[in-house]
Amino acid sequence: MDIKNLGRGRPILIAFAVTAVIALFAITASMMGVRTAQAAYSGPTSAQSVARDEVNPVNAEPTVGVAFVPEGGVDLFRGPDRDPYFRIHEGLALPYLHRYDNWLLVTTTCNDTAWINVEDVGVQDQATAQSTGTGFEVSSATIVLDPGHGDRDWGGVGPSGLSEKSVNLDIADRVRTLMESSQDVDWDTGTISSGTAVSAFGSVVLTRDVIGPNGGDFEAGLGYRATLGTAAGADVFVSIHNNTVPRIDSDIPGSEVYYSAGVDDSDRLAGLIYEELLRSFAAFDADWTGGELLGARARLDPDTGEDYYGLLRRATMPAVIVEGVYISEPDEEALLDDPNFRQAYAEAVYRGTVRFLSTADSGASVNDPEYFHYDSGTVSGNGCQLPAQPE
Prior knowledge:
By secondary structure, this protein is of the alpha/beta class. The protein has 2 domains: about 70 residues, Roll (SH3 type barrels), CATH 2.30.30; about 230 residues, Aminopeptidase (3-Layer(aba) Sandwich), CATH 3.40.630.40. Helix content is about 25%, strand content about 20%. Strands 1, 2, 5, 6, 7 and 8 form a 6-stranded antiparallel β-sheet that branches. It starts with 9 loop residues before the first helix and ends in a 20-residue tail after the last strand.
């Protein structure tokens, strides 16, 4: 190095140093802005989503829970202290994952995000998870029940026109009724009666509720459904469905219960509910149909190795999709049209859930995850309409 000529480059070095400092400051400021946005926002970008730079994260509280829309509906905002742009229907449960002062950032039924004022809704904080098994406090349990389909996503339709979306809603509502009261259960016969042996559950939340828009017949996106389970801090997430297009005739009901392959203990929950379905359905006669594999199952996407079903892929707690019977078959459609059968279905889900939470029982017919190479079909979320509160 030429020491004599070192001083000649000093102005250049100084200029370079100043430039570097300015660049470093700009990068730091930019990163702070990104962190600000991440702390203040969660969810998809859309016309109904809030801009990412509108909230100061210093004042943000990482509060998580569920907001219940009261009678008369509630206003949605694109940001705190801005003008409302939509009044959403009463009777909805909206999950929120962020709070800023008196403002909650919720996920809507169409998977968008919006702000609501906490003073306008009822709030349930996220529950603290318990370990399942002996000693579990059922009176503190939080359950999310998900009646599959809704509105233009009608699900299966029976030969006589019976709609799966309405059947699923009625069964889920019956499960909720059982869970919200204390019960006696004869575990030898499965008979359920009013009593004190099993406490009422602490909280039962439905993704589609009969007190909601159009008597519960509204569209609910998969992202909304899964986020509701997470925000509630659910101990269990159960999605109620019925099947179509069987492959074989069967000597027993062709019930299937799909479990989340990515969440521990989901397979045990599925096995227990399946076992209880068979017990409940044994009291009914039908020309049963089914698939080539019955029982508790998991389907994996062959390209990713993750759960094929988006609802189970998004689950953060033990989660299952129950496919009770085949609504596409005349005998089984007739059963689903019978309130006694729907009650038996609901009682099976109730008993299976109680056993999962409060015992170490393993359940029956739990199959290993399998790769699913077909397209089960789905309804696009494009064009989803938020349910508006009537004027």
